[in-house]
Structure formats: C-alpha cells, structure tokens
Amino acid sequence: QQVAMGLAGALVVLPTTPGQAYSAAGTAYNTEDVLVLSEIDPALNTLADPTTFNLRNYDPKFVLVNGLPTAHAIPAAQNQKVLVRYVNAGAENHWAGLLGMHQTRIGTNGQPLANLLTNVDQQQTGVVTALPAGGTAETLIEVPNDAAKAGFTYPVFDEGRGLGVVGDDMLAYLAVGGTLGLPTCPTGAAGVIPPTVNGLNTPPTGHIANLGSPSATTTVFTVTGYALECRAIAGAETAADGIRYAIDTLPGGAAQAILNSNGAFTLTLTEADVAAIANGGQHYLIVQAQKGTTWGAISAVQLIVDNVAPELTISAAPPIVNPNQSLVITGSASDHYLGESDVTNVTWQLDGGAVTTVAIANPGVTVPVDLTIPVASLPEGPHTVAVTASDSLLNTSAATNVVFTVDASPPALSGVVVEQRLPADAAHPFGGVPTNMNNGTLTFDPNIWAIRVRGTATDSVSLIKGMRGSFDDAFCTTVAGAPGISGARLDPKDGSWSTGNEVGFAYVPLSELNRWLPPVGAAVIHKAFHVRARDGAGNWSACGDGLVDLDRTNPIITAPLLVDIHAPGEAALARVSTRARNVLAVRLSASDPQGITAAEFFDGTDPGLGKGTALRATDGALDEKAEQVAATTSVKRWTPGVHTIKARVRDGAGNWSAIVSARVKVAFPRIFGDGFEAGRVKHWSRVGGRRVTVSSAARIHGRYGLRIALGRKAAYLTDTAPRKATSYRASFSIATGTSSTGGAWQTVFAAVDQHGKTALAVQRRTGASGGQVVRLVTLRHGRAVESSQTLLSAKRHAISVAWFGAKDGEAGLWIDGQLAASVTKLANAGQMIESARLGQVGGGNARTRGNLIVDDFNSTT
C-alpha cells in the first residue's frame, strides 16, 4: 500500500568514468534526466486506513512523473546526447514512447545491454521503451545539429495509454533550446517556401447550451494564430496567402480564412461547427497554410466540447443503520474521459424530499464523494437517497439511487445454554451425560479444558453480525453501541454471519468459570452466562442467559450400605455365600440437592472414580434428589474369605461422596478336607506310589504334614469325592525345600476328568540356578491346551486353584492369596471332574533327592 501511494524514489549509482552511463564508451552523454513513474488510485489514497485496501482492486486514475501531475521538461540542446533514466515505481507496466526522435536503449535494471561473454553490444534503437512494473531502463537520445529544431518540443508519453490530458497520463517532453524561427526569404525567383502555422492559442473547454438545436451563430471556440512564409532580409515577415482547417481530419479544398498583412488570423467555431464532437474527450482542430499553390505542414490545437455529465461511483457504508447512526455515502465523481471539466458539486435527496447541495472544496476532474445523511427521524425500513454530480459547465448527472435500511429493532436471543458433561462412569462408559451443573472440573469435551456456551439469535430486518458473552452481570447494563465489557466471542455454527437466524457458540475456559465457584461445602451458586447479539445495523440485543449451578458440596449417603448373599430369584437372606446362594446384593440410599447421577461399588482395591460396578436406581431412573440404588453380582468366581464392599455416589455437579463399606464372607461347603491331623491318610480314597508318608517333620500348619520324596515314579494321594463336578476348587500349602525337578515339569496337583485324563493341573519346574516356576495348565486328552505361569520367589507358599466348569471355560491360580495365573480356553466341552490328586504326579530327577511337603491348610472342594 505504501508504494502504491507514492512512497518510492530513485537512487542513481554513477560509474567511475564521468559522463558515461556504463563503462563502455558508447554510453557517453552530455546531459541526463531521471523520470520516476508512479500511479495514483484515489480509492486507495483517500482511505482513512489505507492498510485495509485490497490491492486486487487497484485501479489507478493518474500517472505521475517525478511525483507531479504536470508535464515534465527534459532540457536539451542541438548536437547533444541526452541520457534518460526511466524508473517504473508503479504497479502497472508502461511503454515510454518518444515522438519525432529515436531513443537507443542501452541498459535495463542497472545492467548494460551487452553480452557479458562476447562483449557484443546489444543496444536497441526505436521510439518505444518497455518498462515493466518495478523495472528501470536507460536510453540515449541524440539531438541533431539542426537550427530548424530550435524551440521545438518532442512528447514522451505512455504508448499503452495514449495521449491524454496533462496530469492524467505519463507525459514529459524533450525541450530543444533556442527560438523557433522562420527561414530567410530567398532572393530572386527561387520559388515559394512552404508556409508555416504557429502561435496557435489553446481555447478553453467549450459547451453547447442547447445540444438538441445547436446555434450557427453562437461562438464556442475562438482560435488565433499566424500563417507565415518566411522572414525577409529586411526583417519583414511574409504572410501566407490563406489557411484551411478541419476537426479530427486533414483539411482539404480551398482556403477558408483571410489573413492580415502580418499573417495573423482568427477562427470562430460555433455550436453548429462543433456539435459533432459534443460527447466529451479530446479532439483536434487541424490548420494548414497556403502560399500560391503550395500547402505547408499541418498544425493542431486541442478542442474539448463538454456536454456530458460526470459519472458517479458511490455506495453506502453500512447499507443498514440504526437511528443512532448516520448514513455515510462514499465514492467518487469523475468527468474523466467524458468532458474533462472540473466536478464542482454534488446533491442528495432523501426519499424524494428537499435537495441538499454540497459544494466541492477542491474541484477537479475526479473528486471524492463523502456524504453524511442523518437518519434519526426516519421510520424503520428501506429508504432511498438520490445523488447527482455537476461539472463546472453545469452538466448534471442523472440521479444515482442508494438504497439503505433503517433498523431500530435489536435482535432476539433464545436457547442460551451452558453445556458440560459428567465424566464417563460404569453406566456410561463411552462418555458422560450432559448436565447443567459444575463443580469446577466438568468440561464439554474431555480434550478441551472448557465448557461450551450456545445460543440462537434472530432478527427480522438485518442480518446477525456477531455475538458475545460474559459471566459478568455488568455485561448486560451497556445499552448503546458495542458492549463495554470484553466478553467471549461466539462463532457462527455454520461458519459465517450471513442470515437473520444464526446459532453461535463459544468454548469458555474453566479458569473463567472457576472465578465464580463457591467454597467447598458452601451453598450452590446459580450463575448465568450472559449472551448478546448484534445485527447489521449495530443494534445489540438484551442479554440471553444460560444458567449453570456451581456446586462443591459432596452428596450424602443417608442409609448404611447393605450387602447380602442370595440365590438367583430369591430375596437376600444371608451374609455368607453357599453353593446355591452365590449372588451378592448391594443396596444404599443417598441424597443431594443437585440430584444423584451415579452410584458404584467395588471389592478390594479402588479402581478409580467412575470405574466401579454401577448401582442402579430402584425406581428405574436417577432423577431425584434422594435415591435408593441397588445392584447384584455373582460371587461364584470370588475367592473364599471375607470381602469388604465399598460404595459411593456422585451428584449432578460431579462431586463424589465419601466411601462407605460393609463386609461379606464368601465360603462354600466342603466336599472333602484333610489336614493330616490324624497322623495318617485314611481319609483319602487311595495312595499312589510308596514314598507317601505323614509325619510331624513335614508339618506346615498344625502338627502333621505330608512328605513325598522325589523319584522317577509318581507318588500321590487321590480323592474321588468330586463326582461329575462341573466346577472345582482346591487349596493346599507347599514347601519344596531344595528339591529340584531337573528342568522337567512336575505335576503337584491334578484334577482328573470322566475319561481318566488330567483336565487341570498345577505344575512346578526348577532350573539350574534353583529358581522355581509354577504354572496352571488346562489339558485335553493329556495334551496342554493353554497355560499361564508365574515365578516363585520363596520356598513355602499357599496355593489355591479354581476351575469354573466346562461351559465357563476359565481357571485361576492364586499364590499366597494373589491371582498369579489364569486361562480361558475350554479343554473339552462337557468336561467334568471325577477325582483329584495331590502330590508328585510324574517322576522327578533321580540324581537329586529332596522332599515335596504338602499340607491341606484350607480345604479342598
């Protein structure tokens, strides 16, 4: 924008050799001149803030030479070389043409036109030099040593635009010094010298009063000049015999005017004479002098008949106003290329009322238009301003209508909401539900630390052009102009403010919301987020409010946590499980002024907020301030023992209650149990192998334990009590001492199916370093289907194993009360446990002797 407005100049760097453009001798010159070309677009230069101008709309109306609109003179003398340096500082291309002489282009962009490799001169001689935007060129003009050239001027103009009015186009001239003179009259009868016309005056712009009936007697132009043949020896001038003339064409025929004795003449052109050129623009009266039968060279003078009104290019900004504003009409009025007269005034008329005339302070061919129309008393709706422009000859344009709308009604706001979501929980694992409450942590999107505000604005007259909002109540008190409080900007949902019905939204950071949070435990604060909308006329709506309840008080559990064990389909009866009663029921009551939105329970380690087992409302929906919630779950796969059940609830603002707890015991009736306290193995169905003994030295718990010495053959005890069992549990303690399996897997416990094959096994293996690995294996027809293993770090361990049946297809291994391994693949559909073996099932390493001490410390089922 700065360059387009004229911030440009030329810096000439001279070579070391004076009087030369470049180092080559052929670039020598006698005098030089610099022509900096630039353009002006009034639409850019008259803007209050030119940085807002879109340069794609750049349309210059003037071309300046060295910053001036007047013609620039390049002084020269006969027999001189004139160096002209052209600098195109404009944004458009130009072509510098020289009339009447040749110019030789010797350089471009500060570089000589010579081949740098061959040093061959590549200078270009002609009458036109191309000047691209931002480019430079140097040309040499040789003025001949001809006295007849003295006093003459040679135009330099933009061949791409044509000769125009001085000041509107690039225009300079080469002025050759000296005085224009006539040749001396010859002696004797040397013949007639061609006569010359000079001294033509330039008449002012003309006007025809009645273009429909031009007068043949009313003079429009008076043209004077001289028609001479030669200067006599005695100094007397010899006049020509007569002159002839025509407009825009070469004159023909006989002489049309009479000269006085010194060759002076006066031509009067009437309205009828110039009616054909009364359409504005530039025309030429061409004059030719006669001596005897000889006609001399032609001369011309410019004529402009202006009967054309200026042209208006205007618009309203904005086209919609409210009664507190004024309508501003801007643009330009131009007589350029029409009549070339100065524009002197513009008028405006509102809705056919009185006409107001505005005089132009600085008349010109093109002038800016800036009108301010008061609209305070106008009714709401469309209105029209008719604008005209007049030039100095009183040519007045037809009215240009500017239609605008007065809008006194502000937009209306509806549906303003503050949106946030509760975190995901067991009941809503894929995302929390929306809520109108917040404890300072809830967001609309888990990836954006902000809430969302949304609202709809409508206007029946104007388009919606903006929405803003704030939690600050003072935001709503500003009634004139834009809100005085800086609020959050709402963006249009569809991407642009382009209709009279728009939905806007904004993400407001939690840091802004948290400014209004109450202290922990304090009463709820009902906070409004205020939203206002602005229409195209600048009217701001009243506030539309979206409400959010700010709550930092935790909900309260009002009834103790109740946990019971029952059978499917029956009421809760007990606090201890049985094989038939394996359903855990959990119940509690809670309340909160903001309502209960989630409840959960868990067993053991806290899984994290919202990650427990969901408790459901007993009435089907969590929609009240006081709720009773309950849930059931199977404990069939839980480990026997006492379990602590913990529960908590969450309110609508995301606050969680304190945890409450209750205890329940999981136990199942024994099918078979033997702690070897009898000192023998009489309770077992049978003994396999000969290395099975009961002794006090083998005790782990109580007075006795089972000792099995390692060997190549199996040694174990068998229990045949579990007939056709589809689920099975067993537990025992094991102390391996320093016994080694030699790298082979050794079965410590095996559950045998109805086919006599091992269905489930606990196996151990020791390596060369003495470390032990225990694994759980499910088998089909004696072949492992799936296994999972864990490393043992100590010598004595409590082992529990559970198989959840052929249909469930899961098994687990617990070591010292912790789940160590699990498998899920079915070994065989319909598989059932017929018996169980405890001890060394399979041979060990014969080279290493040791003890496998087994003790049933808990029970086998």
Tally of alpha and pi helices: 4
Q: Structural class from helices and strands? A: mainly beta
Shape, principal axes of CA atoms:
elongated
Termini Cα gap: 93 Å
Report on this structure.
It is built from 4 helices and 58 strands. The protein has a 9-stranded mixed sheet. The model is unreliable at 163-168, 845-851 and 856-861 (pLDDT under 50). By secondary structure, it is mostly beta strands. The two termini are 93 Å apart.
Detail the topology: elements first, then pairings.
Blueprint (H helix, E strand, L loop, with lengths): L30 E10 L1 H4 L16 E4 L6 E5 L4 E8 L5 E5 L4 E6 L2 E2 L11 E3 L1 E4 L4 E7 L10 E6 L12 E6 L19 E3 L20 E13 L5 E3 L2 E6 L16 E7 H4 L8 E9 L2 E10 L7 E7 L2 E2 L4 E9 L8 E8 L4 E10 L1 E9 L6 E11 L8 E7 L5 E10 L12 E2 L1 E2 L11 E9 L5 E7 L17 E5 L8 E9 H4 L11 E11 L8 E7 L5 E11 L16 E9 L4 E8 L9 E2 L1 E2 L8 E9 L6 E11 L8 E7 L19 E3 L3 E4 L9 E5 L5 E5 L8 E8 L10 E8 L4 E9 L5 E9 L2 E10 L3 E8 L1 H4 L2 E5 L2 E6 L9 E9 L9 E10 L1
Parallel strand pairs: 1-4, 3-12, 21-27, 30-36
Antiparallel strand pairs: 1-2, 4-10, 5-9, 5-11, 6-7, 6-8, 6-10, 11-12, 13-14, 14-15, 14-17, 16-18, 18-19, 20-22, 22-25, 23-24, 23-26, 26-27, 28-29, 28-31, 31-34, 32-33, 32-35, 33-34, 35-36, 37-38, 38-42, 39-40, 39-43, 41-42, 43-44, 45-48, 46-47, 47-58, 48-57, 49-54, 49-58, 50-51, 50-57, 51-52, ...
